[in-house]
Amino acid sequence: MGCKKSLYREFYKFTHKKLTWFAPLLLLAFMGAFIAYPTARLLAMLTYDSGDVITVILVIVGSTMFSMEFQNHAILTLLYRSPRKLDVYFAKLITIFVYDIILHVIAIIFTLIVASTIKPVSWSAVYRYHQPLIVNMFSLVGVDLVTSMLIISLIFLISTIINSNAIVVTLSLAIVFFGEGISADLMNNNSPLASLAKWNPFNMYMATLQYGNYPEYHATTLLTNPQIITGALAYIMIFFVAGYLVFRKKRF
Protein backbone atom coordinates (compact mmCIF):
# COMPACT_ATOMS: atom_id res chain seq x y z
CA MET A 1 0.00 0.00 0.00
CA GLY A 2 2.85 2.36 0.89
CA CYS A 3 4.50 1.81 -2.48
CA LYS A 4 1.23 2.50 -4.33
CA LYS A 5 0.74 5.77 -2.49
CA SER A 6 4.34 6.81 -3.15
CA LEU A 7 3.93 5.94 -6.82
CA TYR A 8 0.69 7.96 -7.03
CA ARG A 9 2.38 10.99 -5.44
CA GLU A 10 5.34 10.76 -7.82
CA PHE A 11 3.14 10.53 -10.91
CA TYR A 12 0.97 13.37 -9.63
CA LYS A 13 3.99 15.64 -9.11
CA PHE A 14 5.52 14.58 -12.40
CA THR A 15 2.43 15.28 -14.47
CA HIS A 16 2.13 18.76 -12.94
CA LYS A 17 5.60 19.86 -14.01
CA LYS A 18 5.77 22.05 -17.11
CA LEU A 19 8.97 20.35 -18.29
CA THR A 20 7.17 17.00 -18.41
CA TRP A 21 4.91 18.33 -21.19
CA PHE A 22 7.41 20.64 -22.85
CA ALA A 23 10.08 17.96 -23.31
CA PRO A 24 8.12 15.89 -25.89
CA LEU A 25 7.72 19.03 -28.02
CA LEU A 26 11.46 19.56 -27.83
CA LEU A 27 11.95 15.94 -28.85
CA LEU A 28 9.70 16.31 -31.91
CA ALA A 29 11.42 19.55 -32.95
CA PHE A 30 14.82 17.88 -32.70
CA MET A 31 13.70 14.87 -34.72
CA GLY A 32 12.08 17.09 -37.32
CA ALA A 33 15.41 18.79 -37.97
CA PHE A 34 16.73 15.52 -39.40
CA ILE A 35 14.01 15.10 -42.02
CA ALA A 36 16.12 16.97 -44.58
CA TYR A 37 18.95 14.44 -44.25
CA PRO A 38 19.17 12.00 -47.18
CA THR A 39 19.76 8.71 -45.30
CA ALA A 40 16.11 7.73 -44.91
CA ARG A 41 16.61 4.10 -43.85
CA LEU A 42 19.31 4.87 -41.29
CA LEU A 43 17.25 7.70 -39.82
CA ALA A 44 14.20 5.44 -39.65
CA MET A 45 16.23 2.83 -37.81
CA LEU A 46 17.56 5.48 -35.41
CA THR A 47 14.05 6.97 -35.01
CA TYR A 48 15.55 10.20 -36.30
CA ASP A 49 18.31 10.26 -33.72
CA SER A 50 15.79 10.58 -30.91
CA GLY A 51 18.06 8.75 -28.47
CA ASP A 52 20.36 11.74 -28.00
CA VAL A 53 17.71 14.25 -27.05
CA ILE A 54 15.84 11.69 -24.92
CA THR A 55 19.04 11.18 -22.95
CA VAL A 56 19.41 14.92 -22.35
CA ILE A 57 15.76 15.18 -21.32
CA LEU A 58 16.14 12.32 -18.86
CA VAL A 59 19.27 13.88 -17.39
CA ILE A 60 17.47 17.16 -16.72
CA VAL A 61 14.20 15.62 -15.57
CA GLY A 62 15.75 12.76 -13.63
CA SER A 63 18.21 14.90 -11.71
CA THR A 64 15.40 17.03 -10.30
CA MET A 65 13.63 14.00 -8.83
CA PHE A 66 16.12 13.82 -5.98
CA SER A 67 18.47 16.79 -5.93
CA MET A 68 15.79 19.49 -6.11
CA GLU A 69 13.83 17.80 -3.33
CA PHE A 70 16.99 17.62 -1.25
CA GLN A 71 17.60 21.33 -1.83
CA ASN A 72 14.10 22.48 -0.86
CA HIS A 73 13.67 19.74 1.80
CA ALA A 74 10.54 18.40 0.10
CA ILE A 75 12.05 14.93 0.48
CA LEU A 76 11.28 15.12 4.21
CA THR A 77 7.55 15.27 3.49
CA LEU A 78 7.77 12.24 1.21
CA LEU A 79 9.69 10.24 3.78
CA TYR A 80 7.22 11.20 6.51
CA ARG A 81 4.28 10.00 4.41
CA SER A 82 5.96 6.75 3.32
CA PRO A 83 6.63 3.85 5.70
CA ARG A 84 9.88 2.91 3.94
CA LYS A 85 12.59 4.79 2.07
CA LEU A 86 12.52 1.99 -0.50
CA ASP A 87 8.96 3.00 -1.48
CA VAL A 88 10.09 6.57 -2.23
CA TYR A 89 13.15 5.42 -4.16
CA PHE A 90 11.28 2.75 -6.14
CA ALA A 91 8.41 5.11 -6.98
CA LYS A 92 10.83 7.62 -8.51
CA LEU A 93 12.46 4.83 -10.50
CA ILE A 94 9.15 3.58 -11.93
CA THR A 95 8.02 7.12 -12.75
CA ILE A 96 11.11 8.04 -14.75
CA PHE A 97 11.14 4.61 -16.47
CA VAL A 98 7.52 5.06 -17.63
CA TYR A 99 8.40 8.54 -18.89
CA ASP A 100 11.37 7.05 -20.74
CA ILE A 101 9.07 4.56 -22.46
CA ILE A 102 6.57 7.30 -23.36
CA LEU A 103 9.30 9.40 -25.00
CA HIS A 104 10.42 6.41 -27.06
CA VAL A 105 6.84 5.65 -28.10
CA ILE A 106 6.49 9.26 -29.28
CA ALA A 107 9.70 8.87 -31.27
CA ILE A 108 8.41 5.66 -32.88
CA ILE A 109 5.07 7.23 -33.85
CA PHE A 110 6.82 10.26 -35.35
CA THR A 111 9.15 7.97 -37.32
CA LEU A 112 6.30 5.84 -38.65
CA ILE A 113 4.40 8.93 -39.78
CA VAL A 114 7.42 10.48 -41.53
CA ALA A 115 8.39 7.14 -43.08
CA SER A 116 4.93 6.73 -44.58
CA THR A 117 4.60 10.29 -45.90
CA ILE A 118 7.55 12.66 -46.32
CA LYS A 119 10.41 10.13 -46.47
CA PRO A 120 8.93 6.73 -47.36
CA VAL A 121 10.92 3.58 -46.64
CA SER A 122 10.23 -0.11 -47.06
CA TRP A 123 9.95 -1.53 -43.55
CA SER A 124 10.18 -5.10 -44.84
CA ALA A 125 13.45 -4.48 -46.70
CA VAL A 126 16.47 -6.25 -45.19
CA TYR A 127 18.85 -3.72 -43.65
CA ARG A 128 21.26 -4.22 -40.73
CA TYR A 129 22.03 -7.64 -39.21
CA HIS A 130 20.19 -9.32 -42.11
CA GLN A 131 16.90 -8.22 -40.55
CA PRO A 132 13.96 -6.17 -41.87
CA LEU A 133 14.20 -2.45 -41.20
CA ILE A 134 11.19 -2.55 -38.88
CA VAL A 135 12.99 -5.12 -36.71
CA ASN A 136 16.10 -2.96 -36.71
CA MET A 137 14.12 0.02 -35.48
CA PHE A 138 12.37 -1.78 -32.62
CA SER A 139 15.58 -3.57 -31.65
CA LEU A 140 17.45 -0.27 -31.49
CA VAL A 141 14.67 1.27 -29.40
CA GLY A 142 15.02 -1.65 -27.00
CA VAL A 143 18.78 -1.14 -26.80
CA ASP A 144 18.30 2.59 -26.28
CA LEU A 145 15.91 1.91 -23.39
CA VAL A 146 18.72 -0.05 -21.75
CA THR A 147 21.21 2.74 -22.45
CA SER A 148 18.88 5.43 -21.14
CA MET A 149 18.17 3.43 -17.97
CA LEU A 150 21.92 3.19 -17.47
CA ILE A 151 22.03 6.98 -17.59
CA ILE A 152 19.09 7.20 -15.18
CA SER A 153 20.69 4.76 -12.73
CA LEU A 154 23.83 6.88 -12.65
CA ILE A 155 21.77 10.06 -12.20
CA PHE A 156 20.01 8.48 -9.23
CA LEU A 157 23.35 7.53 -7.68
CA ILE A 158 24.87 10.97 -8.19
CA SER A 159 21.70 12.69 -6.98
CA THR A 160 21.70 10.77 -3.71
CA ILE A 161 25.31 11.75 -3.10
CA ILE A 162 25.17 15.39 -4.22
CA ASN A 163 22.29 17.66 -3.23
CA SER A 164 22.98 20.38 -5.80
CA ASN A 165 20.78 20.00 -8.88
CA ALA A 166 23.12 22.11 -11.03
CA ILE A 167 26.11 19.91 -10.18
CA VAL A 168 24.17 16.71 -10.81
CA VAL A 169 23.00 17.93 -14.24
CA THR A 170 26.50 19.11 -15.16
CA LEU A 171 28.18 15.86 -14.13
CA SER A 172 25.55 13.73 -15.85
CA LEU A 173 25.77 15.67 -19.12
CA ALA A 174 29.57 15.55 -18.97
CA ILE A 175 29.42 11.76 -18.69
CA VAL A 176 26.92 11.55 -21.57
CA PHE A 177 28.96 13.72 -23.93
CA PHE A 178 32.48 12.78 -22.83
CA GLY A 179 31.94 9.19 -21.72
CA GLU A 180 33.29 7.82 -25.00
CA GLY A 181 36.49 9.80 -24.61
CA ILE A 182 36.87 8.77 -20.97
CA SER A 183 36.41 5.13 -21.93
CA ALA A 184 38.97 5.44 -24.75
CA ASP A 185 41.52 6.93 -22.35
CA LEU A 186 41.01 4.06 -19.92
CA MET A 187 41.36 1.46 -22.66
CA ASN A 188 44.48 3.07 -24.13
CA ASN A 189 46.27 2.59 -20.83
CA ASN A 190 49.22 0.22 -21.23
CA SER A 191 48.86 -1.23 -17.74
CA PRO A 192 48.31 -4.99 -17.18
CA LEU A 193 44.66 -4.22 -16.37
CA ALA A 194 44.04 -2.50 -19.68
CA SER A 195 42.31 -5.60 -21.08
CA LEU A 196 39.68 -5.29 -18.36
CA ALA A 197 39.05 -1.62 -19.14
CA LYS A 198 36.60 -2.51 -21.91
CA TRP A 199 34.16 -3.44 -19.14
CA ASN A 200 34.20 0.05 -17.70
CA PRO A 201 30.72 1.65 -17.35
CA PHE A 202 31.48 4.48 -19.78
CA ASN A 203 31.97 1.88 -22.52
CA MET A 204 28.44 0.61 -21.96
CA TYR A 205 26.95 4.00 -22.80
CA MET A 206 27.81 3.31 -26.43
CA ALA A 207 25.39 0.37 -26.71
CA THR A 208 22.92 2.31 -28.86
CA LEU A 209 25.62 3.79 -31.06
CA GLN A 210 27.19 0.38 -31.57
CA TYR A 211 23.92 -1.25 -32.54
CA GLY A 212 23.37 1.48 -35.12
CA ASN A 213 26.90 1.27 -36.54
CA TYR A 214 28.51 -1.97 -35.42
CA PRO A 215 31.77 -1.97 -37.45
CA GLU A 216 32.82 1.51 -36.30
CA TYR A 217 31.90 1.26 -32.63
CA HIS A 218 32.90 -2.37 -32.11
CA ALA A 219 36.43 -1.24 -32.96
CA THR A 220 36.09 1.28 -30.13
CA THR A 221 34.29 -0.75 -27.45
CA LEU A 222 35.93 -4.13 -28.25
CA LEU A 223 32.67 -5.73 -27.12
CA THR A 224 29.98 -7.56 -29.06
CA ASN A 225 26.38 -6.37 -28.92
CA PRO A 226 25.32 -9.06 -26.40
CA GLN A 227 28.36 -8.28 -24.25
CA ILE A 228 27.81 -4.53 -24.16
CA ILE A 229 24.08 -4.92 -23.40
CA THR A 230 24.79 -7.45 -20.66
CA GLY A 231 27.37 -5.10 -19.20
CA ALA A 232 24.91 -2.20 -19.32
CA LEU A 233 22.24 -4.25 -17.50
CA ALA A 234 24.77 -5.24 -14.85
CA TYR A 235 25.79 -1.63 -14.23
CA ILE A 236 22.13 -0.58 -14.08
CA MET A 237 21.63 -2.95 -11.17
CA ILE A 238 24.87 -1.88 -9.50
CA PHE A 239 24.13 1.83 -9.76
CA PHE A 240 20.51 1.53 -8.63
CA VAL A 241 21.43 -0.61 -5.64
CA ALA A 242 24.31 1.69 -4.75
CA GLY A 243 22.04 4.71 -5.09
CA TYR A 244 19.45 3.17 -2.80
CA LEU A 245 22.05 2.24 -0.19
CA VAL A 246 23.30 5.84 -0.16
CA PHE A 247 19.72 7.13 -0.01
CA ARG A 248 18.83 4.77 2.86
CA LYS A 249 21.84 5.88 4.92
CA LYS A 250 21.48 9.56 4.06
CA ARG A 251 20.61 11.94 6.90
CA PHE A 252 18.03 14.62 6.15
Topology:
Elements: H1 2-15, H2 18-32, H3 40-45, H4 50-64, H5 67-71, H6 74-81, H7 85-116, H8 133-161, H9 165-187, H10 201-204, H11 207-212, H12 214-221, H13 225-249
Helix pairs in contact: 1-7, 2-4, 2-7, 4-7, 4-8, 4-9, 7-8, 8-9, 8-13
Report on this model:
The protein is mostly helical. It contains 13 helices and no strands. Helix content is 75%, strand content 0%.
List keywords for this structure.
single chain, 252 residues, mainly alpha, 13 helices, globular
Please provide the count of β strands. Answer: 0
Order of helices and strands: HHHHHHHHHHHHH
Structural class: mainly alpha
- Percentage of residues assigned to helices: over 70%
Characterize this entry briefly.
The chain has 252 residues and is mostly helical. It has helices spanning 2-15, 18-32, 40-45, 50-64, 67-71, 74-81, 85-116, 133-161, 165-187, 201-204, 207-212, 214-221, 225-249.
